[in-house]
């Protein structure tokens, strides 16, 4: 948006001249600045083409290839049927649960940190982020030690004679969600912290001056200002979870198999590349669908707001 | 430019149920220190309902801190604040029910203009039809009806400040506090909004406390001005009194850029004081307590001096410069004789302009001359 505000509006194309667009392109290419810009962009474009666009198209082709060399959709049909469909739905559910939990914890943490003096806030953020320099594998084993039947947490709960202890905290959905949330937390905290820091602290004060209580200020002023950050963090978290492999594989039970595990299984055990490619493409489409949904929700909200005023 | 419409024929706000006027406010012995530094010291004042009061002072004079204590954003170390008979000293800002306009507007960026103005009414659970009517009226009064659906960032600074003003007016608070609300605007817009603020304040009988460092703005707007310095009120009076009878050298200097003429008390006569100026002459002034021979400064506003024949008045000298400023001329006169204490500034009607180099005498009405003990002032 900032770009469109800063850049002068391009001259309106002359409808009478069909070659206008081409001519403008040629003129643009002859400018020194444009040529220099293209030169600079080349390494990145080549990099993306080789390492991003080509593999995705390769995967797409693979997922549409039948064993006899013809075209088929049956890999997709397989992926959306029976046990595979269950795994897909589980993946969506666990991703949603993890995103929600990361958002709630991330929100509380970021809100608390954004109230601290910058020095302390920096320290707390380091504490949040530094554990993620350690390999995810090591951290996951750490969680297994903590959460096991005779792990630290269950021992403590049993020692306190909490009824029902020891709890089953591993190899089920609780375990997966705890583990994955801990991996996703830095993303939500960092994103939300940045948004919260950007909020003018005098706005809630101004609302208080007009007579708003704490709850109203939170609901009508603070939350709407943080909302874009919440949506972004939630979507990012969800997308990262969709394809996340390590923690669910180690901390979940057979019922918590996620798509990434299924893909590994198909490739490593069954040497079934076409089915794995179809699953990969489905994940990609789900991600796009999520982003599209986000945009639709936003424009619907804007439209409703404009109607509400008149 | 839409914001340049002056809404001369806009409808007046319908009076609030109960009362349409602002409430009185009294402040007693307000004091605030920050780590050993006294920001506000023993500030007391009585403000009547419907009065327009300005805290005038340089930055660091304690004017904003005093306002923030009245607002409730900052707690006084001691003293009390009573609004409309209710002690609010220890209440949270949202319990005081006051209105605010800040220099930085502080509009809610995620709400439209309409939603911003409706917000304080929604907090008060005003029924929808009345809410709609009141928001509509207020926006119309400020000439903002066409912009109701825009977001604050789509408006100019002047328009944003009008929205902020609407948001403070719409719920008819007993007292409205304004912290340099026009500080971020250019001169022309500022003059225009001053007129509007004053008109709305008088129409609705609002009690307004206004903070500014601009003496001209204070003089234009206020019923009374509290001139603040170093956390204290130097003088709290009508603009006219401050101008004509400044109680301290600081006030005389800050408000009117007075001429300060050093000298010594010569004689206390009935009804006036005589001052022997360092330039040689004797000046008749308003009574000033003090021993004979004490060093003093006599202060006269440039507009209160008149020219006479060279040997008339308290001082004679040579015209150094003549500058036309519209209908006025600014003249400086270099006194001759005695010690040189710098040129004296005059403001005269354009028709009475002297010539540069002319020998003149200066006269002043004793009532326009204030005398201060010598250590202060400029």
How would you characterize the overall build of this protein?
The complex is a heterodimer of chains A (310) and B (378). By secondary structure, chain A is mostly helical. Chain A folds into two domains: 18-64, no CATH class; 74-299, MetI-like fold (Orthogonal Bundle). Chain A has helices at 2-6, 20-30, 32-64, 74-79, 82-115, 118-129, 136-147, 152-159, 173-198, 202-209, 214-242, 246-251, 259-269, 273-309. The model of chain A is unreliable at 1-16 (pLDDT under 50). By secondary structure, chain B is of the alpha+beta class. Chain B has two domains: 2-244, Rossmann fold (3-Layer(aba) Sandwich), CATH 3.40.50; 258-373, OB fold (Dihydrolipoamide Acetyltransferase, E2P) (Beta Barrel), CATH 2.40.50. Chain B is built from nine helices and 20 strands. In chain B, helix 3 packs across helix 4 (128-141) and helix 3 packs parallel to helix 5 (157-169). Residues 1-19 of chain B have low confidence and may be disordered. At the A-B interface, helix 10, helix 11 and helix 14 of A face helix 2, strand 6 and helix 3 of B.
């Amino acid at each position: 948006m900032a770009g469109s505000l800063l850049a002068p509006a391009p001259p309106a194309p002359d409808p009478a001249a069909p070659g206008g667009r081409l001519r403008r392109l040629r003129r643009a290419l002859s400018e020194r600045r444009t040529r220099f810009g293209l030169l600079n962009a080349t390494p990145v474009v080549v990099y993306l083409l080789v390492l991003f666009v080509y593999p995705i198209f390769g995967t797409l082709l693979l997922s549409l290839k039948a064993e006899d060399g013809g075209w088929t959709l049956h890999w997709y049909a397989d992926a959306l049927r029976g046990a595979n469909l269950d795994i897909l739905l589980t993946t969506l559910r666990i991703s949603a649960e993890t995103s929600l939990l990361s958002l709630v914890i991330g929100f509380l943490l970021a809100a608390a940190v954004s109230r601290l003096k910058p020095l302390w806030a920096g320290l707390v953020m380091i504490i949040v982020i530094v554990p993620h320099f350690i390999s995810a594998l090591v951290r996951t084993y750490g969680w297994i030690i903590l959460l096991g039947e005779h792990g630290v947490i269950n021992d403590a709960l049993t020692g306190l004679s909490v009824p029902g202890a020891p709890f089953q905290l591993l190899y089920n959905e609780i375990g997966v969600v705890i583990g994955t949330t801990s991996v996703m937390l830095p993303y939500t905290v960092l994103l939300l912290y940045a948004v919260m820091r950007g909020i003018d602290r005098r706005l809630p004060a101004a609302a208080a001056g007009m007579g708003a209580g704490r709850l109203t200020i939170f609901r009508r002023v603070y939350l709407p200002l943080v909302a874009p950050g919440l949506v972004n963090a939630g979507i990012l978290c969800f997308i990262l979870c969709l394809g996340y492999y390590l923690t669910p594989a180690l901390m979940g039970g057979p019922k918590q198999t996620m798509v990434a595990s299924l893909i590994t299984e198909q490739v490593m055990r069954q040497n079934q590349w076409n089915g794995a490619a179809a699953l990969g493409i489905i994940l990609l489409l789900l991600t796009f669908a999520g982003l599209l949904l986000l945009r639709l929700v936003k424009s619907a909200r804007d439209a409703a707001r404009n109607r509400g005023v008149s | 430019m839409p914001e340049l419409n002056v809404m001369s024929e806009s409808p007046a706000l319908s009076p609030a149920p109960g009362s349409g006027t602002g409430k009185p406010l009294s402040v007693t012995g307000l004091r605030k220190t920050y780590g050993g530094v006294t920001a506000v010291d023993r500030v007391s004042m009585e403000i009547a309902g419907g009065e327009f009061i300005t805290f005038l002072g340089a930055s660091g004079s304690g004017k904003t801190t005093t306002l923030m204590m009245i607002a409730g954003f900052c707690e006084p170390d001691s003293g009390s604040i009573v609004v409309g008979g209710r002690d609010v000293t220890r209440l949270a800002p949202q319990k005081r029910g006051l209105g605010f306009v800040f220099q930085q507007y502080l509009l809610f960026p995620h709400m439209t203009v309409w939603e911003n103005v409706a917000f304080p009414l929604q907090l008060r659970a005003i029924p929808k039809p009345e809410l709609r009517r009141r928001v509509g009226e207020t926006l119309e009064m400020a000439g903002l009806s066409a912009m109701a659906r825009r977001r604050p960032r789509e408006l100019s600074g002047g328009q944003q400040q009008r929205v902020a003003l609407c948001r403070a007016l719409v719920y008819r608070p007993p007292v409205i506090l304004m912290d340099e609300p026009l500080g971020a605007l250019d001169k022309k817009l500022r003059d225009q909004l001053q007129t509007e603020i004053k008109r709305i304040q008088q129409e609705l009988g609002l009690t307004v406390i206004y903070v500014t460092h601009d003496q001209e703005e204070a003089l234009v707007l206020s019923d009374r001005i509290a001139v603040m310095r170093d956390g204290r009120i130097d003088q709290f009076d009508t603009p006219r009194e401050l101008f004509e009878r400044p109680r301290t050298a600081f006030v005389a200097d800050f408000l009117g850029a007075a001429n300060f003429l050093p000298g010594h008390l010569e004689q206390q006569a009935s009804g006036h004081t005589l001052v022997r100026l360092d330039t040689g002459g004797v000046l008749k002034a308003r009574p000033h307590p003090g021993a004979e021979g004490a060093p003093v400064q006599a202060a006269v506003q440039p507009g209160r001096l008149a020219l006479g024949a060279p040997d008339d008045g308290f001082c004679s000298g040579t015209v150094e410069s003549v500058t036309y400023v519209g209908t006025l001329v600014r003249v400086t006169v270099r006194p001759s004789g005695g010690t040189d204490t710098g040129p004296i500034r005059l403001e005269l009607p354009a028709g009475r302009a002297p010539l540069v180099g002319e020998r003149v005498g200066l006269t002043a009405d004793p009532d326009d001359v204030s005398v201060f003990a010598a250590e202060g002032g400029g």
